[in-house]
Amino acid sequence: MNVVVCNKVTRLFNTFTLSYVDLALPEGVIMGLIGENGAGKTSLIKCLLNLYHLNHGEIKLFGEPHNINEAALKQRIGVVFDDLHLPANFTTKHANQFYKLTYTNWDEPYFFTLVKQLNLPTQQKVSKFSRGMRMKLALALALAAHPKLLILDEPTSGLDPIMRDKILDLLVQFMDEDATRSILFSSHITTDLDKIADMITFIHKGRIRFTMTKDDLFYNHGRFSGSEEAFIAIPEDAVISSRKTSIGVEALVLRDKVNTAFALHTPTIEDIMLFYARGHK
């Protein structure tokens, strides 16, 4: 079953268009959504949540139209945006009371367990929280309702590496507890996705450029690094894009179109994103 399905989703803005987006997030999968700032990641997430209305296309969540029975659908969704949206005078305890009235599946003991794990104060106003503290509280609020779909927009932004690892461990635990759960994880910190993502979707200038499993992504692509003379021998249709370096050329290539005599390196997700963006100017 696909938890999220986008079919030709289009949304027009003044200076940008989210254009004919096709996307399918299967049940039980963590999908990383990558792309540079302004590529359309947050716009797509807001379309999924019906915060932006579509000009064309359709979205289904759990097999149902995303804009019908919306309140019931959102009981099954946890969301973390790139900031915490709570009144400035709220404390962690106030947030608990508010969410307890909002979500029928709210788990108060689990929420305060997360608060303790994430070293969050219970009496301090959120207006005094650092960015990292605000993101940790947003994640605790999203997880404590035990959603079937977790949508994360830059959830580890502003966190130190140790806390980022703790957050990733919580996400893995969240998935391990229930095989029917799914995560859509938008991030520019691609090392986080290297660690936990099952699938990667790359969006560039409002269009989906590819969606594939992480294993296929690494299997299908190689990073060439060598002299210009050696690079010339690589077929043109094998090259996603290239750049000159002080020692020659670096390129992202399709492995199955390159002679096995070439020693190709395994690229990172960041390598793949940057070379695809360079190739789709």
Automatic annotation (TrEMBL):
Domain ABC transporter residue range list: 3-230
Key words of the record: ATP-binding, Nucleotide-binding, Transport
Domain of life of the native organism: Bacteria
Record carries keyword ATP-binding: yes
InterPro entries registered for this protein in UniProt: AAA+_ATPase, ABC_transporter-like_ATP-bd, ABC_Transporter_VariousFunc, P-loop_NTPase
Pfam family, one: ABC_tran
GO molecular function list: ATP binding; ATP hydrolysis activity
PANTHER family: ABC TRANSPORTER ATP-BINDING COMPONENT (PTHR42939:SF3), ABC TRANSPORTER ATP-BINDING PROTEIN ALBC-RELATED (PTHR42939)
Protein name (record): ABC transporter ATP-binding protein YtrB
Species for this entry: Metalysinibacillus saudimassiliensis
